[in-house]
Amino acid sequence: MKKLGCRVSVIIPVFCESAIINETIQAVRLLKGGDTAEIIVVDGQAEAETVAAIRDNTVQKLCSEKGRGRQFNRGAASAKGDVLLFLHADTILPTSAFERLAEAMRDESCVGGAFSLRIDSPRAAFRVIETVANLRSRLMKIPYGDQAIFIRTSCYWRLGGFREIPIMEDVDFMRRIKRNAGKIIISPEPVITSARRWEKEGILFGTLRNWLLVILYLCGVAPERLARFYR
């Protein structure tokens, strides 16, 4: 990504995502700057079915124990980029994602950020969820992982990377960035993330459960206890 002023390593943690991984990779490649971005896919499944399905030979394929925190750290350890971008397999970046990221990195006080949220469904209930999530992100500067968190590589290692906990690794990470690092930018341009989990669990149940888990975590409940309610 030299033309945009920085090189980005896109780290994608996967677990049984062979059906969609090539679509996710292709979406990154089609973005401006995506052709030169480093893409690292880290498979948490012992059988490594997802990385075996990848057709793009330029993608770095790694294996790890299951757990997004572990998988993110495994990918970061192999990354060569100036900036790390953590992308969920069911999330599509906005068309100008790398340009917005490079623009944010030109501000030396900025250490990282994320994008706004859009859920891939026409249902009105999801517009409410998006509005609440985006308002919270802008006010608290603690976006969720499905908003494609990015951070300067140097800052990532200074903070020790993600904690390898079973849940809330994204909230914990952004809280540490906010407390110890510097400026966080939330781009107004949204990622598009799948509605599949909400559709499977039920929109009301999934949303209220997620909000309750975050509140309990912020109140000090251990992630290991919270993980029992998020399967």
What does this structure look like?
This protein is α/β, with parallel strands linked by helices and 231 residues long. The chain has a single domain (2-194), classed as Spore Coat Polysaccharide Biosynthesis Protein SpsA, Chain A (Alpha-Beta Complex). The chain contains 10 helices and 8 strands. Strands 3-2-1-4-7-6-8-5 form an 8-stranded mixed sheet, sandwiched between helices. The radius of gyration is 17 Å and the shape is globular. The N and C termini lie far apart (37 Å). The model has no long low-confidence stretch (mean pLDDT 94).
The structural class is alpha/beta
CATH topology descriptor? Spore Coat Polysaccharide Biosynthesis Protein SpsA, Chain A
Low-pLDDT runs of 5+ residues are none
| Assigned CATH architecture | Alpha-Beta Complex
How many structural domains does the protein architecture include?
1
Strand content: 15-25%
CATH-wise, what's the superfamily? Answer: Spore Coat Polysaccharide Biosynthesis Protein SpsA, Chain A
Q: Secondary-structure element order, as H and E?
A: EHEHEHEEHEHEHHEHHH
The overall pLDDT, averaged over residues, is: 94
Strand order of the largest sheet: 3-2-1-4-7-6-8-5
**What's the end-to-end separation, in Å?**
37 Å
Global outline: globular
Number of extended strands: 8
CATH class call: Alpha Beta
CA radius of gyration: 17 Å
Helix-residue proportion: 40-55%
Strand count, sense and barrel status of the largest sheet are:
8 strands, mixed
How many H/I helical runs? 10
